[in-house]
Amino acid sequence: MSDRVYGKTVNEFIAEAMSSSPTPGGGNVSAVVATLGASMVCMVANLTIGKKAYVEFEDQAKEQVAKLSEIIERLKKLTNDDMEAFDQYMAVFRMPKSTDEEKKARAEAMQAAAKNATNVPLDICKTCAEIVKEAAKLAPYGNKMAISDVGVGAMVAETALRSAMLSVDINLPSIKDQDFVAQVKAERARLFVEAEENKLLALADVKKRMG
Amino acid sequence: MSDRVYGKTVNEFIAEAMSSSPTPGGGNVSAVVATLGASMVCMVANLTIGKKAYVEFEDQAKEQVAKLSEIIERLKKLTNDDMEAFDQYMAVFRMPKSTDEEKKARAEAMQAAAKNATNVPLDICKTCAEIVKEAAKLAPYGNKMAISDVGVGAMVAETALRSAMLSVDINLPSIKDQDFVAQVKAERARLFVEAEENKLLALADVKKRMG
């Protein structure tokens, strides 16, 4: 069902995103932005393979292409999961709440939906952090002719992380399970720090090799 | 000819971007990322129209939708211009350079191509700064239910600006016209400062209204 996003033309996707229809929203768009960031890092890894000047990095570049291709596929699945999590949440709001039993069932479904609508964007964030890490790995050795695109990938993926995290921030206050909340908050802080550091490392190498 | 990007499915565009083919590269991808950012701001403006709670902002929201729609169309054209500027640059490298006359013609064409390959991403950057400005305008009054997506738009567009500016930074050192170089550098600094300020303003309002 990832055709809801990736099977559309870019024109169609943008037309839907800018319209008043609630999907695609910030979570999905962040995931698509992340795939674009990953694609730039992957391109530079691809441009490093089969080149005499980079023969000593051949295996490393191939590993990075494989890893980034897997990341892109994972993001496509997460984009779809994010839309489904949104649909699930909306469905819960339409559940009946006349009897006490209905109220209880609705409240429980609401908690489950809120956790799911937190976990999916958090997984998108984790994947974004992996992209920035791949960019930091590639920046010191990737094909110099296209090295600025590693910078594009690092910046775009780090922003996708910060954007997707807004979906986490929206849903977290409605979750009652405080162990879950504490875990998410710790992971949130860790991801911001890790991605920021890797972005700065990547950009430092990119600038050095551009100049 | 914007079908080279926007007429493709998102899947096809990503497959091309991650491949070793030099286009689409960082410039085009930054422009697409910017359209995604603009689409999020536009969506929230659209969600503010026709709602009782926001009736006093109706005209302002409509103006913003019109402005952002125009920005998105402009970015589509700039994406195409960026690909053409790259093609033009590559064509100059293939020009003959046997005679003095050929060398002179080639050097002149190279300077023109370098200026064009600087102006187009700079125009992309200017357009990104406009998106962030629209986000800062919308953040204080846009539909609260989707206000986090204004934050997504502001962050994504500011990063698209920084990403597209790497294309400026690559081409600027090869330009001999020092007046041109000085103007671009001044504009570069101005855009970074303006977009950063507007992003922070937008995010401050978004966080306030999310909590």
Automatic annotation (TrEMBL), chains A, B:
<protein>
    <submittedName>
        <fullName>Methenyltetrahydrofolate cyclohydrolase</fullName>
    </submittedName>
</protein>
<dbReference type="InterPro" id="IPR036178">
    <property type="entry name" value="Formintransfe-cycloase-like_sf"/>
</dbReference>
<dbReference type="GO" id="GO:0016787">
    <property type="term" value="F:hydrolase activity"/>
</dbReference>
<feature type="domain" description="Cyclodeaminase/cyclohydrolase">
    <location>
        <begin position="9"/>
        <end position="188"/>
    </location>
</feature>
<keyword id="KW-0378">Hydrolase</keyword>
<dbReference type="InterPro" id="IPR007044">
    <property type="entry name" value="Cyclodeamin/CycHdrlase"/>
</dbReference>
<dbReference type="Pfam" id="PF04961">
    <property type="entry name" value="FTCD_C"/>
</dbReference>
